[in-house]
Amino acid sequence: MSSKGEHQTVPLSVLLKRELASEKVESPEISHGQASQSKKGEDFIFIKTECQRVAGDGVSTYSVFALFDGHNGSAAAIYSKENLLNNVLAAVPSDLNRDEWVAALPRALVAGFVKTDKDLQERAQTSGTTVTFMIIERWVITVASVGDSRCILESAEGEIYYLSADHRLECNVEERERITASGGEVGRLNTGGGTEIGPLRCWPGGLCLSRSIGDMDVGEFIVPVPYVKQVKLSTAGGRLIISSDGVWDALSAEAAFDCCRGMPADAAASQIVKEAVQAKGLRDDTTCIVIDMQLPEKPTPSLPPPKKPGKGVFMSMFWKKPSESSSQTEKEYCEPDMVEELFEEGSAMLSERLDSKYPLCNVFKLFMCAVCQVELKPGEGVSIHADISNSGKLRPWDGPFLCSTCQEKKEAMEGKRPSGDGRYSSGSD
Ligand SMILES: [Zn+2]
């Protein structure tokens, strides 16, 4: 259609070939475990495995692991846990092949986070929540996060990767600058006598985080736009940890991996929580999800070939194929052992995050709001690139588009209209 539609120019035969080639790569075997010690009861876990990308085709293709750490109550965390996945999936166009589906995820995650926040706002909930939301499709891991829970990955070779951003004001200069530019104030709690204590907070509201879902009584420049990272793991596998700040206030990433080395996922999650609580005491909700990805064990043939003694008998935590069973295909996909970065974007600007150019040009729906997916009637709809409502004809090349309420939300998030009507709530963290 347009010259922008470069993926449309890929011949179908090539696409099919690509699909076939990737079918050869086995799906990872995913095992997971979770553990939690509760202080306030505001940490929530959402796990959904064996989801079907194409509904009803019986082929399980992806799994979802998410952690919600609520504050000022648990309503926002519970609401997000119950609605976020649906809101993300609603923003993924139908009829995509696997590569397109995976490539559409970063943008769908942004839309789903913002829609969830907007819906929650309409329910007049003052609580808020951090979100660390992971979708695993074959060997591709996509993580979207707001707040200060963290997701880390250790590849089979022992390299550690951070798959989430830390949106604590205390340690994020860029976010402090963004909030100040949008009209918020960043400072410590003033005890009255001029003494300032505690971490940096955003005023009004006193939140320590620059991004979250919910928190409607703080400025709307506390945005729900997630940092998104997408990586592809080699078939050598790896271990993932998602934990709330209760763990990270006590343990480094290295310490978390080290303390549970060799344990299966469920024991590992318990061990990490135990170590964190032992180190610092139970000062906050302390929750951990551990996910192991590895090549599935081959079904044992009826007459197993005799094995050379002492070779390939025991599996390490990261399974590596015994050398005698290696086929050409496996060799090809098992090496090199590396983590390939597919996508990373942390901007708080919706226009950058929902832009039509990347990663796929034509996966937004033309006459739908890019955030809430409502149908736009003629005359409605504002280009994501427009600053002020300029209702007029929708021209495809101006898209994607927002409905009027999502456009209002976008402007509020960018500090272009007063928000929170100046209400000051008690401090929160
Ligand atoms: Zn909308």
UniProtKB/TrEMBL annotation:
Taxonomic superkingdom: Eukaryota
Assigned protein family: Belongs to the PP2C family.
Protein name: protein-serine/threonine phosphatase
An annotated Gene Ontology molecular function: protein serine/threonine phosphatase activity
Record-linked Pfam families: PP2C
Organism: Actinidia chinensis var. chinensis
Keyword line: Hydrolase, Magnesium, Manganese, Metal-binding, Protein phosphatase
Classification via PANTHER family: PROTEIN PHOSPHATASE
Chain spans, region Disordered: 409-429
Catalytic reaction annotation: O-phospho-L-threonyl-[protein] + H2O = L-threonyl-[protein] + phosphate; O-phospho-L-seryl-[protein] + H2O = L-seryl-[protein] + phosphate
Lineage summary: Eukaryota, Viridiplantae, Streptophyta, Embryophyta, Tracheophyta
Cofactor: Mn(2+); Mg(2+)
UniProt keyword Zinc present: no
Enzyme class: hydrolase
Domain PPM-type phosphatase: 24-293
Compositionally biased tracts (Basic and acidic residues): 409-420
EC number, as in UniProt: 3.1.3.16
